[in-house]
Amino acid sequence: MPWKTQTQMNQRIEFVMRAQTTENFRALCREYGISPKVGYKWSRRFVQHGLEGLKEESRRPKSSPTGLSEEVVCRIVLFRERHPHWGAKKIHELYQRSRGEAPSQSSIKRILEKCGLVKKRRTRSAVESGRLHSGAKAQAPNEIWTIDFKGWWHDANGRCDPLTIRDEFSRKVLELRALENAKTETVKAAMEEVFKRHGLPGRIRSDNGAPFASSSALLGLSRLSAWWLALGIDLERGRPGCPQDNGAHERLHLDISRQLEHAGYTERQAAFDIWRKEFNEERPHEALGMRFPSEVYRDSERKYEGTPEKLLYPGIESRRVKADGMMSFEGKVYFLSRALGGWDVGLAPAQGGRWEARFGRLVLGHLETATEAFLPIVAQSQEVPQAA
Question: Each residue of 240-274: pLDDT tens digit?
């Protein structure tokens, strides 16, 4: 039976005092309504600790048989310090790969929280926004590559505005390159190296900025994107001023900003290469089933064989576009785009006496010979019209 709550401490003191001189301990326990086991416990505590020993102690176990050892806790903290922006899932995967087994994700999360290594995030309500491209996700490596400039910052070497190229399906960063400038020829030379290493993608997604696109040109074509089309690569772009249309690539830029922008490195490109290798070969991704991007990615079967000297249009006529964007056809001159200067455009008969103008697989618009006008395609979406 329990002690009477209102006089619990007084009864314990009285009991242990009498227990020192009683000859019948069990009878004394019955008098106070407790078992001999409880009586012996309080008597022993009184002898060892005096009146302080009669106070209630915490029932919490002094140790847990399933608790993490100090070595394991230190290892978790070291993983976090090495990768300060990785969460419990990624650390769990990395720990398991390196040690063969790992504490649970909840245990790792608890350790990170207790060590003050986790900051709670504000939650925001999701806002649904439309997309101008098809919205289809890549289902295999090299179906879609995404490309952009990170956005400049200054370091010990001066201004830095790295070019980033990423495979959408595998998340692999194919290039992180510090370029001298963002001119077409500079970016083209960097992309040629990527094409030589990995082959050609089916489609490239970019924003509407130079040198990837030109807002004032036909279908937003730039000299760089015209080169992509000549290589047989389709185009996809987000809406102007809407970086969320290429959100995963922007998320990559956030990681770069956190880990490289203020790193204080002296050899810029060497630091970029080390970071890219770690991202591709050491960082597990939840969307990939905690695999590394390099474990998922494979090079494209479409090999890069250099820039074609001429585009062929079997069965239809073709004409060369001059450097000023002008093209002659049936004795008349039409302006298309300077981005197409030096390339051939295909011309296929269409209804109403018109001629459908194509560049590679892309339908540009129609030549109307009666009015000597070129009528460009007005793209209502980023799924640019392809020739049949």
Answer: 666 677 888 988 988 888 888 776 676 888 999 99
Q: Closest Cα partner for 150 from 286, 243, 29? A: 243
228 versus 156: the higher-pLDDT residue is 228
User: Can you give the residue ranges of every domain in the chain?
Assistant: 5-54, 70-114, 145-296, 317-376
Cis (ω within 30 of 0) for the bond into 141?
A: no
pLDDT at position 127 is 36
The mean per-residue pLDDT over the stretch 91-116 comes to: 83
- Do residues 139 and 259 make contact, with C-beta atoms less than 8 angstroms apart? no
pLDDT higher for 378 or 102?
A: 102
- Tokens 């050609």 locate to 200
Report the first-to-last Cα separation within the chain, whole angstroms: 91
The answer to whether 382 and 238 have CB atoms below 8 angstroms apart is yes
What are 280's two structure tokens? 């591709």
Of 3.40.190.10, 3.40.1400.10, 3.40.1160.10, 3.30.420.10, which CATH number belongs to 145-296?
3.30.420.10
Q: Are the beta carbons of 29 and 1 closer than 8 angstroms?
A: no
* 275 contact partners, CB below 8 Å, separation of at least 6: 176, 256, 259, 260
What are the C-alpha distances in Å from 202 to residues 46, 228, 251? 82, 10, 22
C-alpha span between 254 and 8 (Å, rounded): 62
Q: Is the pLDDT of residue 67 over 90?
A: no
- The 3-state DSSP composition of the chain as helix, strand, coil percent (nearest 5) reads 40, 15, 45
| Residue 384, pLDDT above cutoff 80 | no
19 vs 310: CA distance, rounded Å: 109
